[in-house]
Amino acid sequence: ARYAGTYLLQQYGVEIVLRMGGDKLMFEMPGQPVSQLFPSSETEFFFKVAPTTVTFFINEDGSVSHMVMNSQGTETRVDRVE
Q1: Residue 11: which pLDDT band, with cuts at 50, 70 and 90?
Q2: Which stretches within 1-82 are classed as H helix?
Q3: Taking the complete model, does pTM exceed 0.90, yes or no?
Q4: Within its chain, how far is the Cα of 3 from the centroid?
Q5: Rounded to whole angstroms, how far apart are CA atoms 16 and 29?
Q6: Confidence (pLDDT) at 13
């Protein structure tokens, strides 16, 4: 639940929403089907539908500052806005 919120993919001006669907972390991006993120560690997640991983970065106060999406070797920073 700590990762749920709105993130901004700045290079495209696209908002990504992460929300809880029961005990599952769901990833919503405009124009894409809703997908579940699966944990591989406390801060790293992966998709079963695409070769993409997501790593969350935590501030000293425990809040999430941003996530980095890694898709086939390309890393993209996505800042949390809400």
Answers
A1: confident
A2: none
A3: yes
A4: 7
A5: 5
A6: 92
* Cα separation values, 11 from 15, 27, 37, 72, 77, Å: 11, 18, 22, 18, 9
Of the chain, the end-to-end C-alpha distance in Å amounts to 13
Cβ-Cβ contacts under 8 Å for 42 (sequence gap 6 or more): none
- Long-range contacts, 14-19 (Cβ 8 Å, 24+): 15/81, 16/78
Residue 49 CA to residue 29 CA, distance in Å, equals 14
* DSSP reduced 3-state for 59: coil
CA 38 to chain centre: 11
For residues 58, 62, 5, 45, the Cα torsion angle rounded to the nearest 10 degrees is: 50
Amino acid at 5: G
In degrees, rounded to 5, the angle at the alpha carbon of residue 6 between the alpha carbons of residues 44 and 50 is 45
